[in-house]
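Ligand: iron/sulfur cluster. Inputs:
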Amino acid sequence: MLNDHDQDLLLHCRRLGHEVTFGYCRRETFGKPCRLILDCWWEQFDVRAFLQAHLSEADMAQVERASAAGPPSKLLSLVEMIQQAKDALKHKP
Ligand code: SF4
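Predicted complex:
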């Protein structure tokens, strides 16, 4: 099932600086996986095979593209986080 690993814990998220669950990482970008999910979770379980089994082809392709691109600079990451916060506020009822 899609939520089989949702309670698995990673002790240090490189973006947030604290522990996170796989469930968070799986939905981090407005319900879609964080762009770093393959890189962060490969040591815990076969995250690529898991996502391939549960995501649409388009969503999996996005994960693979993001993974191939590598981690963004800290500045870009900060800009993206600010944009995500702005977008989240826009969608708040
Ligand atoms: S996948 Fe993203 S949200 Fe999850 S631990 Fe890695 S950087 Fe943090």
